[in-house]
């Protein structure tokens, strides 16, 4: 059963690439992946949110969610599952960027993107949250487009990042409402 699902995942990746990959789009998707490297765009946004006192809690929650995503996705799950990258095992996959040197599952780019974007969606007005979710989805799609992840890597990265964001955001508010974060009062 696992072999069948893996083959289906690989076939879906090749189909998506055959449908979407074009010289005109490749620079755009490379740019998206680049800003998603190490969660860079999300770290920058989170740090900017730390500046105004009004959005400081959102910046804190986002940075904690990013750390959680890094630990769970990149340090634990990637090494535990050790899934080979699709370009090494699926014929027809076009690798359009340099080879990543870690495992495939889950997509760390997508996990960190959704960890931060879901926090922004939950904590900020929707005029900021919705574009954040769209950017997160595009960064995830870029990983498939560029041939470095299976669709299931990206879907699970989005799911794990979203769960982490919801957990961290909820825990932050529960602790704050219970007075357990008083040590942060002068900062937030």
UniProtKB/TrEMBL annotation:
GO molecular function: hydrolase activity
Lineage: superkingdom: Bacteria
Gene3D superfamilies: Phosphatidic acid phosphatase type 2/haloperoxidase
Domain Phosphatidic acid phosphatase type 2/haloperoxidase: 58-169
Membrane-topology descriptor: Multi-pass membrane protein
GO cellular component, one term: plasma membrane
Keywords carried by this UniProt record: Cell membrane, Hydrolase, Membrane, Transmembrane, Transmembrane helix
Location in the cell: Cell membrane
Family annotation (InterPro entries): PAP2/HPO, PAP2/HPO_sf
Chief place where the protein resides: membrane
Transmembrane stretches, start-end: 28-51, 58-77, 128-148, 154-175
PANTHER family assigned to the protein according to its UniProt record, in alphabetical order: DECAPRENYLPHOSPHORYL-5-PHOSPHORIBOSE PHOSPHATASE RV3807C-RELATED (PTHR14969:SF62), SPHINGOSINE-1-PHOSPHATE PHOSPHOHYDROLASE (PTHR14969)
Protein name per the record: Undecaprenyl-diphosphatase
């Amino acid at each position: 059963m696992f072999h069948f699902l893996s083959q289906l995942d690989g076939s879906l990746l090749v189909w998506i690439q055959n449908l979407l990959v074009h010289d005109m789009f490749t620079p755009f998707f490379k740019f998206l992946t680049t800003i998603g490297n190490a969660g860079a765009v999300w770290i920058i946004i989170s740090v900017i949110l730390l500046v105004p006192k009004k959005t400081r809690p959102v910046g804190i929650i986002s940075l904690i969610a990013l750390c959680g995503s890094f630990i769970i996705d990149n340090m634990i799950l990637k090494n535990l599952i050790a899934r080979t990258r699709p370009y090494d095992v699926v014929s027809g996959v076009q690798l359009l960027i340099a080879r990543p040197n870690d495992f495939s599952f889950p997509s760390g780019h997508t996990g960190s993107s959704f960890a931060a974007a879901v926090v922004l969606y939950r904590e900020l007005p929707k005029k900021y949250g919705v574009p954040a979710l769209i950017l997160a989805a595009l960064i995830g799609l870029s990983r498939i487009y560029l041939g470095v992840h299976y669709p299931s890597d990206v879907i699970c990265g989005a799911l794990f990042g979203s769960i982490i964001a919801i957990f961290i955001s909820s825990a932050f508010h529960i602790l704050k409402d219970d007075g357990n974060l008083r040590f942060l009062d002068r900062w937030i």
